[in-house]
Specification:
It is built from 15 helices and twelve strands. The protein is α/β, with parallel strands linked by helices. The longest helix is centred in the middle third of the chain and has 16 residues. 48% of the residues are buried.
């Protein structure tokens, strides 16, 4: 499928609109069938949901982002494009867009993520580099986050065979700066990917989204070294939620960097001491998590009455709740409740979450 240029532009604009994250973006496309129609309907949606306005970025802002990408030699892949990575499209919900530098075809090949501690031991880095080399020679593309330590070692080991670096900032944001040479090599021999706008500088809030793309691109995630509270364990948790395999390289109980992988093993992760463990797991018959209903808005009326929206708002608790549970409690069709929740989220009164969940937004 090839998206028309006007629809691609509208999808970028919708994705950059305040309060619209991946869940809301996907639901708006399901509700209206296109970003163009969603943008047209947005003012009425927000008003009915109980808010006064919504910060849709001006056309000039989107044109400036596209111009910046063109100047950098970057390529924009929009959800719905034929070359949007298939594994990432299966995530609930997928990122609306990806900026890329380098060989985007690598993301269509079998990918596996290799992540770990920034302050890694020499032994851990040697393991990551050697394992990445073995994985690459076996036909896998190694995905990581270009951080210091394990990430950098993984990219280095996989450079000759193909590696993908997912960044928190824009694809033109070299972070950390001391990986500038490695970044340059990856843009030449591999692929750099980001969901953030061109020119964006990485901030703490960007890394969970970055980690979600790392696991989403990959059939499995290998953790080499990580402390118990680390981004690498967040990536492993996201992988498990996405129905992907989680591997852990065991380590000495005397090293705090081994606590993360060892804890993952206690929780049921797959022991990884080399390529054979990965291949054995991948050769076992497995299926990704089954997708939910094709379209939650089937049967929903074009206009939801204000009274129905307020009924849903009154019943919605601050903890994540399935929309079908709300529908049963209210005696309403699921499509009607889904549409009301979408309007409440656009008004900043509800938060839409993966898996058909929603929660009341804190005032």
């Amino acid at each position: 499928m090839t998206l028309p240029d006007a629809e691609r532009f509208a999808r970028l604009r919708l994705a950059r609109t305040e309060q619209i994250g991946p869940v809301t973006f996907s639901q708006l496309l399901e509700r209206f069938g296109s970003a163009q129609r969603a943008l047209e309907a947005l003012p009425d949606f927000v008003r009915r949901g109980g808010a006064n306005g919504h910060a849709v970025p001006p056309v000039e802002q989107i044109e400036a982002e596209l111009d910046a990408g063109n100047r950098a030699g970057a390529r924009l892949i929009i959800l719905g494009d034929a070359d949007y990575p298939g594994m990432l499209a299966a995530v609930d919900p997928p990122p609306p867009l990806l900026w890329t530098l380098g060989d985007t075809g690598l993301m269509a090949r079998p990918c596996i993520a290799l992540v770990g501690a920034r302050i890694a031991s020499a032994g851990g880095q040697r393991i990551a580099r050697g394992l990445a080399q073995q994985l690459g020679e076996a036909g896998h593309v190694v995905v990581s986050g270009l951080a210091r330590g394990i990430d950098g070692a993984a990219h280095t080991g996989a450079l000759p065979t193909g590696t993908v670096a997912v960044l928190g900032g824009g694809v033109d944001d070299i972070y950390p700066p001391d990986n500038a040479d490695l970044y340059a090599q990856i843009t030449e021999q591999g692929c750099v990917v980001s969901e953030s706008p061109m020119g964006a500088r990485a901030q703490a809030r960007d890394f969970p989204r970055r980690n979600r793309i790392i696991s989403g691109l990959s059939r499995g995630v290998i953790v080499v070294e990580a402390e118990l509270r680390s981004g690498s364990l967040i990536t492993a948790r996201l992988a498990a939620e996405q129905g992907r395999d989680v591997f852990a390289v065991p380590g000495s109980p005397l090293d705090p960097r081994s606590r993360g992988p060892n804890e993952l093993l206690r929780q049921g992760a797959i022991l990884c001491e080399g390529l054979e463990d990965v291949e054995r797991a991948f050769n076992t018959l497995r299926t990704l998590r089954e997708p939910g209903p094709t379209n939650p808005f089937d049967g929903a009326p074009d206009d939801i009455e204000a009274a129905v929206i307020e009924q849903v708002a009154a019943l919605l608790p601050p903890v994540p709740t399935p929309r079908d549970e709300l529908a049963r409690a209210l005696g309403l069709p699921i499509g009607t409740v889904a549409a009301a929740l979408l309007e409440l989220s656009l008004a900043g009164r509800a938060e839409l979450l993966p898996g058909g969940l929603a929660a009341a937004q804190s005032p």
